[in-house]
Design a protein that fits this description.
Elements: H1 26-35, H2 38-50, H3 56-62, E1 79-80, H4 82-86, E2 104-109, H5 121-133, E3 145-147, E4 153-155, E5 177-182, H6 194-209, E6 218-222, E7 235-239, E8 241-243, H7 244-247, H8 255-258, H9 261-271
Parallel strand pairs: 1-4, 2-5, 2-8, 3-5
Antiparallel strand pairs: 3-4, 6-7
Length: 284
Amino acid sequence: MRVVRRPRRSRGPRTGRTRRAVHIPDAVRLLLLCCLPGAAAAAALVLCTIGGGRPAAERLAAEPARPATARHTAPRPPVVPRSDWLGDAARRQPPPRYDDRVVAVFLHHTDTPNGYDCADTPRILRDLYAGQTGARDWDDIGYNFVVDRCGTVYEGRAGGIDRPVTGAHTQGFNHRTTGIAALGTFTAGVPVPRALTDAIAALAAWKLGLSGTDPRTAVRLVSSNNRSRYAAGTTVAMPAVAGHDDGYRTSCPGAALSARIPEIRERAARLQGRAAAPRQAQAP
């Protein structure tokens, strides 16, 4: 009797390596369950499990961590250093003082004539410096920055353009703030040059961006003396871009410039890359 042998199944070459599990994404598993009926779906799910993609915890651990929300910053605009306009007119003065950061900007006008040639700005700044350090006996010019009608930004008070220098511009609110003065007088009905407001917005966007402050928010500031609008020690929700008259009883920065502050806030926020609605208040 002839014995018929069944052909042996080819098992492939022996390599000594185990088969690698194939990772099947969760979306494919769901597709199998939706498309296969009854037991077939269950079998497919078992195969997916045995096929052993990495456990969920392992997969999550392997994924790169998402970066924290990026801080909204803006580039620093060109700033003329005080040495360029002050020169040898600088007098001896005490060392500058600093805060930990800047979270608000106060806008001023210098209450000087408007019909100047921008080439004369350095001379006008020297006159302002002489008046504040002379007749008023201040240790330095009070404003951290001055912007002329052509949009040129000048460093005012000494201490460093990039640093949070404590100014002398707004009674009660010189700490954690920067004073920006518009060169001229901007009372009601006076035209406010676009170059001026654009430069102020760019300066505010950069300076506030260093602390991550949205120019459209309100920030909490503490009044340091009773000569401000608020008693010493009072915590005030102040606009991040404010007029001098928000913190002190004065007509500065003038009705015409005050009317442009909302526009300045919005432009500064856009320069920081912001689009969402701002929060109502921000902790100091």
